[in-house]
Amino acid sequence: MGMTMIEKILARKAGRSQVTPGETVVCDVDMTVMIDLQFASAWVQPLRINDPEKVAVIMDHAVPAPNVHDALGGTRARAFARDFGIGKFYDVGRHGICHQVIAENALARPGEMLACTDSHTCAAGAFNNAARGLGPAEVFAILCTGQTWIQVCPTIRYEFTGSKPAAVFGKDVFLHIAGTWGDATNHGLEFGGPGLASLPMSDRRTIATQGAEVSADYSTFPVDDLVRGFLAERGVTPDSYQAADPDPDAAYAAVRTVDLSRLEPYVARPGTVSDNAVPISAIERRPVDQCFIGSCANGQLEDLEVAASIVRGRRVAPGVRLLVTPASQSVYQEAMRAGYLQDLADAGAVVTNSTCGACFGYHMGLLAPGEVCLTSSTRNFPGRMGSPEAEIYMASPATVAASAVAGHVTDPRGALT
Questions:
Q1: CATH (domain of 26)
Q2: Which residue among 49, 106, 190, 338 is least enclosed by CB atoms within 10 Å?
């Protein structure tokens, strides 16, 4: 029997010719990514690590340090990188949300396996990588041994057909999937089909990242010319990796078709995204207090570009706060050079440092009780971005930007024409 993308990668990393769902295998891990929070909480310096070349340290969640606790974590991270000769150390000034930094620096390569303590590690699946978020103890063990055990999961295949409309983005595609089919707990997600050609890397990365919100183990895309080009720009040539394509007779738990041409912008109502996302035409006219554009899912340069194009020459509505967080220092610099940050600031937005910040309700813009937020970040459960008594709606950066100007949740299509 043939194998899916994930099954092929896991088999290769386990030194096996075949794996099947339900099996537990021990795999070699190609890249272990450490984040600042891991050093700030109960950190114990290891006596040795398996391979410094297969380790990256990224300062992202609490950067620059908002309190003494996180400042101490930064001190420990710098000591760890120095003591073990970690060349892939992205300290303040080179920092960014880890999944953006992973992509920018080609730390996740096709056919390989990446582990990190952050739950949105599946983001790297956009590069045909078996990327998964694991617990701190598991990641610490990988750091020391270079291996981890994995239970092979069944795979759900999403077949994209048609071409994506210009006003529909990766967030909308994901919200359609989450609203239509709900959770995919203990499953891997595999994406493909002829419609994939209409999805740029920014949209693929958003979809892969958001797989965590339907409890998927992996979110994996194939390698095509777009992926090859993205990696080549970062010095990674096809002869340096082995892509994993699904076999024609691969077995799937389900195969689902998404006609991209029929989609419109989507919004998730507060509480969850699974079984709770609807087309923008079905959403109520909800006034908003705060709008947020950023996170590992939607703080990319392309996200800032579309937001800037919508607010250019306009003003954020009275009583609305628009917060914009570029996903990395590199994105910040590129957006500044392109004038996007100027457009956003001129419209009344506050552009923050590159950090996870407001997305996980830690700093840079928490919500008060009773407030309503429309976010392009990754999660919308109660208390995620501040008070558990606040409401969080989720949508694409285009919808968020248009809503910030309108003062209520609104369809972005008029602003994009």
A1: 3.30.499.10
A2: 338
Confirm if 36 and 63 have CB atoms less than 8 A apart: yes
Q: Has this prediction a pTM greater than 0.70? A: yes
For helices 201-210 and 225-232, give the axis angle rounded to 10 degrees: 100
167 and 298 fall within a common domain:
no
* Rounded-to-integer distance, Cα 137 and Cα 133, Å: 12
Asked whether residue 240 is assigned to any structural domain, the reply reads no
Half-sphere exposure of 95 (CA within 13 A, CB side): 23
Q: What angle do CA 203, 208, 211 make, to 5 degrees?
A: 130
**Distance separating alpha carbons of residues 131 and 115, to the nearest angstrom:** 6
* pLDDT tens figures, 8-49: 999 999 999 999 999 999 999 999 999 999 999 889 999 999
Determine, yes or no, domain membership for 241: no
In the structure encoding, which two tokens stand for residue 86, read together?
């970690």
Place of tokens 């340096």: 240
Q: Residue 218, exposed/middle/buried by CB under 10 A (0-12, 13-18, 19+)?
A: buried
Query: Do residues 116 and 98 lie in contact, with contact meaning Cβ atoms separated by under 8 Å?
Result: yes
| 147-173: average pLDDT | 97
